[in-house]
Please model this.
Amino acid sequence: MSWLRALRETARSGLTVERRRLAPVIAARGALGLALVVGFSLAVFGPAVAAASAFGAFQAAIATFQRSWRPRPTLALASGGSLAVSTFLGYLTGSHTILFLALLLLWTFLSGLAWAAGPTAGIIASSNVAIMLVTVTLPTSVATAAGHAVMIFAGGVVQAALVVLLPVRPWGAQRDALADALAAEADYARRLRHDPVAAFDPVPLMTARSAAAVTPRQARRRPAELHGPRRLAERIRPVLASLADPAVGAPAEGPQRDRVRELLAAAGEVLDATAHAIRRGEPVRLPPAAVAALRTPDTGTILTDRAHRTALRLIALLGDVVETVEPRTETGPGGRGPKAPARAPAPAPVPAAARGGGSVLAPRTRPTLLRLAPLVLAQMRAEVRPGSAILRHAIRVSVVAAAGYLLGLVLPFGHGYWAPMTSVMVMRPDFSQTYARSVARFGGTLVGVALATAVVRTAHPGTYLSAVLAVLCAFGMYLLMRTGYAVSQVCVAAYVVFLLGMEGSGVTQTVRDRVLLTLLGGLLAMLGYALYPAWETPRLRGLLAEWLTTSGRYAAAVAARYADPAGPGSPDVREALLSARAARVAWHDALGRATHEPVRHRGLSHAAAEGAGHALAEFGRAAMLLEAHLPERGAPPLPAAAGLAEALRKATERGAKAVRERKEPAWDDLRETVAAWDTEVTDPLLRKAARLLLAALDDLSTALADA
Model:
């Protein structure tokens, strides 16, 4: 993609306004916390302290909106505490340019490394630097700097307390993540009716898994319906694929296929109903037609052999999902006592091992905030290495922020913090977000500053009216922040103008000065990325190779279970599957970012990348078909499967090495193993699955041949 086209695409992305479901109650709660802090500070300490302390409540509320599975009060406290430390250090060095510049370099570098711990940590750290640049311009003495820091932290405490005292949809994020996973499987079941080999995006399942990890305190309070459905959803996915695929299930046409389509449609409706109940915290209300379809007694006379067993397994798993969500004490008609949950029972018992080949995993725990600190530091240290995109981002953002600060001092505009503040807020570790946010920041600041300055110059609001206007702007930002960065920046720019106008600082600065400094900060951010980039495109081959390696280990782990059904089995298969999923997501994320980069493909064209990704997805699907029919622990072993497992592992590792070296991978050894497998194994499923695995790898070689 050319630079001109890349700039056009990122500009369009940055200025896009999306239609999203708003959360006015949560936005009002955040604005209430800000109003309490500003009002108290004004009444007791005056405008200067109020202007500084307001940022603590403002930023703490933003932290509670981040996509994080940690308790919202914890996020608010972490944001308020870290911002208090940042501003206190900024106050101590603010009157000494050299010292403050050194602090800015160090603090910005650390904020860049904080992205190693995830987007939430990176956003909070970046905001701390940006707000520090604003607050240290407010006149104060070192003696009162500690008091300001305490008030900033108090803003975080207030927001945390409001989350506890005024809860809005507790566990809402976790409910949405689990419901989205079940809804994704419902959509998958419906698509399988028309496309028996349809692809499935595992991201919703991975998100639900991440949301299921809880702290010890959360574990004691988590609703019962959030405990088990995710694990069952993991088991349902391969069963759906196995039931639909003509290669291992019912024929492509005829009465059996019609019955399979009926079962898939009913499964979709049951999963949708369960997702709706989890999202809203209500009892499950199953469609009668879907329940009737699952209870049809003639399934055994229509479906035969493996397809029949798979159908029974699916019905049993759907019943388990409904049972884990359905409240045990739901009252019957007229409220006269409990009624039995409306579940879809299996016509015959199905062993747990046959439902997905795995024991139930222990609940995943998340470390507390204090125990998390050394883990985050370890993640940050791990990124201090050559080739790390996070390290390049940290160096880039710190240099750009320092350059913006120095230019702000030299230029005759006054309040030069607008330039470095803009750079810090828009810069991200990838090209697309940095450029899109730079354009959005400039557009939003242009509108927000113009409107706010016009109000200040025409209405001349006093201290208290300026405070009210600042709170209203903050409410608008909380309400609209998910609709687009440009929209939220209109409110943020106006908020800063009104907040500083409350104390009398910055009122004399013109719209032109503020907009030009914002433009300067955005241009510095864009120039910094162009001069010191971290392109995703050159990394694609390495990520594709990693996906191939992890997929091979997953397929090998599944095959090894057939060779030794009584072995450890399931944990190995599970861990291998999770690694393959993580590699797949990393590949797709990088591919999406690389699509908008203004660089040549460097050995892997977009067509080759698309073909290779499709081939590896088919490889994973074939392995999943094998996993859907894993033998029970008492089943007789299949010695030939051990050779297939070893051949899969070695072949994919050699193939990954060839991909990294820009060579076309060959599968001759694996081809010989599969040919021998056909003569040694009589089970049609195992023979077909091995052929599908080899065919997918051949498709991968074909896709890479013209890379």
